[in-house]
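Input record (Table S2, row 228):
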Amino acid sequence: MPRILLFDIDGTLIRSGGAGARALERAVAAVLGLASVQADFSFGGMTDRMIFRRLLGSLGVEPEESLIARILERYPAILEEEVANAEHYAVQRGMRESLQALELSGRGDLAVGLGTGNVERGARIKLARADLNRFFPFGGFGCDAEDRGELLAAGAARGAERLGVAVSECSIVVVGDTPRDVSAAHAIGARCVAVATGGATRDELEAAGADHLFDDMASPGAYEALLS
Ligand SMILES: [Mg+2]
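Output record (magnesium ion complex):
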């Protein structure tokens, strides 16, 4: 069966050392003309638009579409600066090796892409510092849909198109680090390989119903789970 893999970014492929969260907060502050904005909730597994909406709500500001559009315009330049300066930016353990192995596997029935709440521009900025973009020719992004299941469906559709088959003929595997990745995967009939490298513990990921669960992608059996 053709296989589509969709990788989450934050906490799964990389950790940005807080750069992502800082950039989201700074973009909101910049557009509202505030000195700073600090979220009182975790961004884990949320799409960018959802985060902007909730940040605005917590400030008592109506999250109008035109306002979110202005924030999204400011965000990439701020993110670039934050990612470039992030001291604790890192690729998660085992990820680069797994991506290289997938590439070398030479499987023609395999499509490797992204499944992330980041808008595509933000996703590409975050991955560029570690030169990971070349592994992901397509994806489903936060600019495709605000709902995580819907953006994964968009990514799966692009993967199927690349493989030249119907999405219904493919087995879809989402790789993620939060309960939201698990539930969104299940919402589109995909399986979820969860890694406890991000915002959620093993117990939380297990409770969410992760189909496979590993400490990180360097754990025994983790790479095999991507293809099994
Ligand atoms: Mg994540």
